[in-house]
Amino acid sequence: MISSNARYWIWIAGALGFNCDKVNKLYELYTDINEFYTGGMAEWRFCGIFTPGELQKLKNTSIQSADEILLKCQKLGYSVIAIDDDLYPECLRNIYASPAVLYVDGNLPDVDNILSIGIVGTRKASGYGVQNAYKFGYALSRYGVCVVSGGALGVDCASHRGVLASDGVTVCVLGCGINTNYLSENREMRKSIAKRGAVISEYPPDSPALPYNFPARNRIIAALSDGVLIIESGKKSGSLITADFALDMGKELFALLGNNSPQNEGSNARIKEGTAVPVTDFMDILSAFSGRYTEDGAFDFDNLNFADIEQVPVKSSTAAKPKAKNKKTETNDNKEEIPAPAKPKKELKLEGVEKQVYEFLTAEPVHIDEISEKLGIPVYGVSSALTKLMIMGVVKAEPGRRFCVSASSD
């Protein structure tokens, strides 16, 4: 299935880039985006929402590139759901920088009308983390819950595999094209997910797994979920970005109680500060969503059959030996096994609140309330700006709702 206006939205994303807030504005302005495309430069200027540089990008981008992407999707059997299609999730339309289109392998569940829980955590999961991710995925799916995660090593794939073991429904959100050979260890798992749920991405087929795609991908996981569960998250884990997106979107945030190891430093901090509800079993989550799940009286959470848990790959177990440290290697487990991005230009092309917030931040984490107070900007405005800056990969979130510039931005 390919949305009738998909080619125009793909063209817009190709011209303006992914994670662009202009997509939301265009969706509000046009009932038929074809009118925007056929109107040409006069119509684009008349909108009043584009910079001169963006107008030039629209002019220089050929619609043929969009048609080539659609042709490839047809050959691969992928669906392409545009933001103006009825099948596009409403929960994604209401966020900052909604994806212009979703590329889908499988059948996207009706996440607007069924209970969906995101499960995130470290790629360097311990045996405890892997077991619990698997158990929560398995148990929640037995109660009719759709589990959303990112398909990465460790916690992500353990939760996906738990759902598959229970014959449930899960959605895997990738930070690259869905046919890209990303994490070959999970290739078969992704094929199984597509048969019972969906593997999705906002990036066209063949798009590489670039580091800055992953923080952006996390906003989609949070948006598709009614609540997000953190299982083992280090102090600098990318899963905390998903947690912050969830909080900004007004979603429920849960965290598995863990010990004092570095792998739990981030998730335990969320519990201590009161932003995450501590959980020990799946009913702690379901109790927050009374009436939105199906009962399974025969299910025994304490006696699960861990059929394929030994096959769950984690980051620490895939390397034959430790890699030598160097400045080109990214250690944050949100960008696992992908070279760190090059330093951005000292002067970023930012405007308005984003520029103010970015210029205020340093390498020292600052609480969002202090940013708001010092700059005289409402918290919701600061939160929106921080979201955009995190998507750009120039700002990172720390425990306690604190933010600082990322290492690559210093």
Structure description:
A 9-stranded mixed β-sheet has the order 1-2-6-5-4-3-7-8-9, sandwiched between helices. The model is unreliable at 317-332 and 334-346 (pLDDT under 50). With 410 residues, it is an alpha/beta fold. It is globular. It contains 17 helices and 12 strands.
For the biggest sheet, the summary is: 9 strands, mixed
Helix vs. strand class: alpha/beta
The number of helical runs is 17
Flag low-confidence runs: 317-332, 334-346
Radius of gyration based on Cα positions:
21 Å
In terms of DSSP E residues, the strand content is 5-15%
Give the helices and strands as they follow along the chain.
HHHHHEHEEHEHEHEHEHEHEHHHEHHEE
Distance between the termini: 45 Å
| Percent helix | 40-55%
Average pLDDT, to the nearest integer?
Answer: 85
Shape, principal axes of CA atoms: globular
Number of strands: 12
Main sheet strand line-up: 1-2-6-5-4-3-7-8-9
Which secondary structure elements does this structure contain, and how are they paired or packed?
Elements: H1 6-16, H2 22-29, H3 33-47, H4 52-60, H5 63-76, E1 79-82, H6 90-93, E2 101-106, E3 116-121, H7 127-142, E4 146-149, H8 155-165, E5 170-173, H9 187-196, E6 198-201, H10 213-224, E7 227-231, H11 239-248, E8 252-256, H12 265-272, E9 277-279, H13 283-286, H14 315-318, H15 352-360, E10 366-367, H16 368-375, H17 379-392, E11 395-398, E12 402-405
Parallel strand pairs: 3-4, 3-7, 4-5, 5-6, 7-8, 8-9
Antiparallel strand pairs: 1-2, 2-6, 10-12, 11-12
Helix pairs in contact: 1-4, 1-5, 7-8, 8-9, 10-11, 15-17, 16-17
